[in-house]
Amino acid sequence: MDKILLSVIMPVFNGEKYLREAIESILEQTLTNFEFLIINDGSTDGSRAIVESYSDPRIKLIDNERNIGLIDSLNKSIELARGKFIARMDADDISHPHRFEKQVELLESAGADICGCHWLVMNAEGKLTEAKIAPLCKHAFTIFLACGNPFAHGSVMIRADFIQRHALRYGGVNYAEDFDLWTRCWEKGAIFANADDFLFKYRDFDASLSKRESKGNTSEAKAIRRRFVQRNSDECLHAILEMTKCYSSLSQTERIFLLLASYLVSLNSKRPIVIGVIKQSARRSIGIAILYLLRGF
Fold first, then answer.
1. How does strand 6-12 pair with strand 34-40?
2. In this predicted model, what pLDDT tens digit does every residue of 99-117 receive, in sequence order?
3. Rounded-to-integer distance, Cα 71 and Cα 215, Å
4. Single pTM value for the model
5. What are 145-163's pLDDT values in tens digits?
6. Which end of the chain is less congested by CB atoms within 10 angstroms, N or C?
7. What is the C-alpha separation between 124 and 282, in angstroms, rounded?
8. Complete DSSP assignment for 232-289
């Protein structure tokens, strides 16, 4: 048997409504050398039966005796993973058929430790509602981490030996487990990358876990951002200066996050770097950044 290149980890808890779409989007990948670890986290609906209905030998069903939650299920699956790379997947999302192929190629060619991609947002019915552009350059990742999450969690692929070498796991927070882990990966020297392509569809609906836990997620994310800026103020300042040099080529999201990051760094370092960024910024970017702040960013 060939050595497994990729371990796909997907916890599911009462996810029968969208589970087949999620599973089939993985089984239809153009890269085929993977194991698919599906962790049934004490589901009481038909989720387990749906998984069992597939005969693909790459699927490995793992039953938790009781519901232990997303964080513990993810850590359990990381311990069981045998691949060189570990890919996240959520039970209500959809991966593009070329997702794994392109992400493995990027991780190898860029020497990166973790990567995601651009993603599309869809509603409960699968209708596309928004397109999200992920950061692509080193300095943009620093800016994003100072302001928010640079990845859609379910779109991420990570080099297994990096997280094993640094003993990195989810935990320490209750809701923003992915954002917290990415900041700790960055502080351990991880090289970040994103495929410059839309390879993932994220389902945003009222009953989703992220919506149910949005209040706690927002509060924890704010604390993580502040901690990241406090610990890495000099690196954030350097990234702001470098991003400002190429302001005209930045996306609208990058311009907004540049403003927000410069504001946070100014507060932390007592250096008015935000003034220089504001002078270059368009009114629209400034207005949106102010709205972020008014909403409790």
1. parallel
2. 999 999 999 999 999 999 9
3. 18
4. 0.92
5. 999 899 999 999 999 999 9
6. N
7. 35
8. THHHHHHHHHHHHHTGGG--HHHHHHHHHHHHHHHHHH---HHHHHHHHS-HHHHHHH
